[in-house]
TrEMBL record:
Species this chain originates from: Sorghum bicolor (Sorghum)
Keyword S-adenosyl-L-methionine attached: no
Name the UniProt record assigns to this protein: Aminotransferase class I/classII large domain-containing protein
GO biological process: amino acid metabolic process
GO MF: pyridoxal phosphate binding; transaminase activity
Record domain Aminotransferase class I/classII large: where: 50-411
Residues where N6-(pyridoxal phosphate)lysine is found: 255
Length: 428
């Protein structure tokens, strides 16, 4: 390392990693974080956080006492202070396998499960494992941008297929077939769906599995919102169709147990024919886990009791509150002339709505809309541009219902205030 002649060292580091920059541009967290930075901290009104799916700060969505007690017992037992194995603690993997098997027509084994530090970590692993030279994966639009970000970081090509708003946000099967080629290795789907709030029927899931079989690709099904349903359609695990096509199921306790900060997720081989093992996918997952992070051993140690001791009443009450919140959100949005809601939410914690930019004076697009809304009304909503849908909005209703009512009223006031003079009388 040489002196440049002026007494200063010519440091050789500091150039930006182009892959990291490309991944960062796809980060929904960074976009929502910037919106929170726009909020006027002197505003006496409470912040209405309608931009991300974290219900845990609200008392009505408090974690089950049995789950908290299980973590406390694991922490004080002295048994979980060591490094866990690469796939996860055996008893924890066994408990997750038994839990998932309740809803499948076959039994999962302990060896079918790899524990992860949350579902985002599971996404990271799968995008890394599939990043072979020339390979591509099919991702939904709108979708959860962590898939794009992780694929970009690993140099994995991704192609977007559409979800169809006029068909309950179902997968565009014909579009999937048109996108795929000999280098396509997987299709990613999310059910119940973030960001759309849809829940896929048994019949539609069958079509997706049959399409994957026809194309010779695996299905990666993100089921972090498993059983978070409150409409007419029940949750059906994609693993049910593992006999048709191999399925990798991503999940965790973040959403159903209302504990996203506990960072415990899993990758499950819901593949009764063993195709994924033959293709060494499981082996690659465990290799990656061996050079990655571990979920906290204490949470792993608590998982058997978290699953065994959480009463069904907890889940029922949580979904009853979520149903109430979803209804409030949907009914209030329907009354706003500048917003179109193509499908009533039936699951997850979100709804996608279309924004009529022509309704407004001085608002350029969805990002401008959300930025000004945060500044003026202390309401944070996620712009659709961050999800591949310009001039749409993703609204989360996973907040305390009275605060949601207040946030919706502020959203309505904002829209009226910025409406063109010829239109601002029409919204009621």
């Amino acid at each position: 390392m040489e002196d440049n002649g002026g007494g200063e060292v010519a440091w050789r580091f500091g150039a930006a990693n182009p892959s990291l920059e490309a991944a960062s541009a796809l980060s929904i967290r960074a976009l929502v974080h910037r919106l929170y930075g726009c909020v006027d901290r002197n505003d006496p009104r409470p912040l209405a956080p309608l931009g991300h799916g974290d219900p845990s700060p609200f008392a009505c969505f408090r974690a089950a006492a049995a789950a908290e007690e299980a973590v406390a017992a694991a922490a004080t037992s002295g048994k979980y202070n060591s490094y866990p194995t690469a796939a996860g603690l055996t008893e924890a993997c066994s408990a997750v396998a038994a839990y998932l098997s309740r809803y499948l027509p076959y039994e999962l084994s302990t060896g079918d499960i790899v524990l992860t530090a949350g579902c985002n970590h599971a996404i990271e692993i799968m995008m890394a494992v599939l990043a072979m030279p020339g390979a591509n994966v099919l991702l939904p639009r709108p979708g959860y941008p962590m898939y794009e970000a992780r694929a970009a970081l690993g140099g994995l090509e991704f192609r977007h297929y559409n979800l169809l708003p006029d068909k309950g946000w179902e997968v565009d099967i014909e579009g999937v077939e048109a996108l795929a080629d000999e280098n396509t290795v997987a299709i990613v789907m999310v059910n119940p769906n973030n960001p759309c709030g849809s829940v896929y029927s048994y019949e539609h899931l069958t079509k997706i599995a049959e399409t994957a079989r026809k194309l010779g690709i695996m299905v990666i099904c993100d089921e972090i919102y498993e059983h978070c349903t409150f409409g007419s359609k029940p949750f059906v695990p994609m693993g049910v169709f593992g006999e048709i096509a191999p399925v990798v199921t991503l999940g965790g306790i973040s959403k159903r147990w209302m504990v996203p900060g506990w960072r415990l997720g899993w990758i499950a081989m819901t593949d009764p024919k063993g195709i994924l093992r033959k293709k060494k996918i499981l082996e690659s997952i465990i290799i990656y886990r061996g050079i990655s992070v571990d979920p906290a051993a204490i949470i792993q140690g608590a998982i058997p009791q978290i699953i065994a001791n959480t009463d069904d009443v907890f889940f029922t009450n949580a979904m009853n509150t979520m149903r109430e919140a979803a209804e409030i959100c949907y009914q209030r949005l329907k009354c706003m002339e500048c917003i179109t809601c193509p499908h009533k939410p039936e699951g997850s914690m979100f709804v996608m709505v279309e924004l009529d930019i022509s309704y407004f004076n001085g608002i350029d697009d969805d990002i401008d809309f959300c930025t000004k809304l945060a500044k003026e009304e202390c309401v944070v909503i996620c712009p659709g541009s961050g999800l591949g849908m310009k001039n749409w909005l993703r609204v989360t209703f996973a907040v305390d219902p009275p605060l949601l009512e207040d946030g919706m009223e502020r959203l309505k006031s904002f829209c009226l205030r910025h409406a063109k003079p010829t239109r601002n009388h029409a919204t009621s």
